[in-house]
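Letters spell out the chain; the tokens describe the backbone. To illustrate:

===
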Amino acid sequence: MFEGILGYIVGGAVIGILARLFKPGADPLGWIMTIVLGIAGALAGNYLAGMFGVGATWQVWALAVGCAIVLLFLYELLRRKKPVATT
């Protein structure tokens, strides 16, 4: 069980770092959020791979990185500060 959790953490870190490298622009994320984002991308990519019948390992990894990039964009949208209206 410990190997599975450690595998998700290491895999999530790799996927999160790859997503941050491929996505243009600066991302104000720390290491923990990068790993969490990578794990979420890995889970979403694995789900999509199962849905589309993708079996090749490199294709599953590509889907995971792609999902992590989408999650990066969503995270950036949610974190964007809204301008304060002055009256």
